[in-house]
Amino acid sequence: MSAPRSRRARAVMQARAVTHRAAAGLSDGVRRAVADGWRLLQATASATAAWLVARYVLDHPAPYFAPISAMIALTANLGERGLHAMRLLKGVLLGLLVGELVLVTVGTGPGSMALGVFVALTAARVLGGPQVVLVQAGVSTVLVVALGDQSNGVQRLVDMLIGAGIALVFTQVLFPPEPLALLRRAEKAALTPIADGLATTADAIAQDDDELAGRAVGKFRDVQDRLAELRQVGQASTSVTRRALVWRAAVVVHEKENSEHLGLLGASCLTLARLVASADSGTRGRFQQPVRDLADVIASLARELGDRDVRQRAADRSLELATRLTADAGSADSDRTFLAHSLRMAAADVSAFAGVDLADAIKAIRAGALEQRVPPIAPAPGRLLGWPRRLRGKTR
After folding, report:
1. How far apart are the C-alpha atoms of 82 and 71, rounded to whole Å?
2. Angstrom distance (rounded) from CA 224 to CA 213
3. CA distance linking residue 387 with residue 36, whole number of Å
4. Which of 64, 98, 126, 277 is the most buried (most CB within 10 A)?
5. Is the sign of the CA dihedral 388, 389, 394, 396 positive or negative?
6. pLDDT tens for residues 328-369?
7. What is the per-residue DSSP string for 254-278?
């Protein structure tokens, strides 16, 4: 009788685990949809506008390329949507040119399709085009050669011009990219799982739960994904600031320099979580409150990245925490010392991200006094038609 009950118990546990993972996946999906809701609405509006212009202004009977191009451009990563629209147009122009040349020189014979696609893809690669340029060049060539109708290629070009033009209006006039806001959004997305991992680590210490400590280490896997997204946003923000005003570019560059410390912070917190998971109960028990305090500091930063006072308090609290740990580190070769050094380095990385120079933060921890203040934090402007408000601010 015990064997069937054991199998039923395992089946129930497995079912609960599957249900939990499904609920977690659905919850993550809902959060992503909510976070990207405004961008999805913009893509929908741009596709609708492109279709209306092509259908009722230029009287195209089936203008499907116009809304498709606008939608593809507006669903690209924030900060890259205008560039994506130009890449779409570049690929279509190249594909149409190759397709027309194949029709003129080879005709519609059996080898014309293969020749056209190969030449279009090769030319796109030689010109250094990204994946979207290759795809659009190949598709445009296929359509021209397969239909054998030059007028179809011209109509596709007009539709693409409409779609790309509508996309540029949305991305450069109505809703221009705000690199500072993009950076802070990506920073928050990276800070949140770091704080969550440390909070779970503190819970594992409080409950003396090795399994929970292992799950806390696993939470830092999400941090690596968020840091990769942050690097992509940083590259996009650099591209955007090349066309920005000098003062605006300087602000974004400064924030990007701060964000680069998040990689160090994620690594130091992961090391701390792994040391906690491998330490014995007596050693790690002394670090429950310091780890929780550090998690609270990072969580407060994630909530108010644009508040200088919050950043200053984070730097001050990190310094106080690291100084207290230094005084209570123990013997030089003890596990408690390794934990203390790891937590102290994480505290220094928090101060560096908050705006304090890393070398100054380390010196302050050794001296027990932080003299450097966090510099003023530039506010992130609003996204929806924020340019009239910013213009009024400049004229005051």
Report:
1. 12
2. 19
3. 21
4. 98
5. positive
6. 555 555 677 888 888 888 888 888 888 887 777 777 777 766
7. HHHHHHTHHHHHHHHHHHHHHHHHH
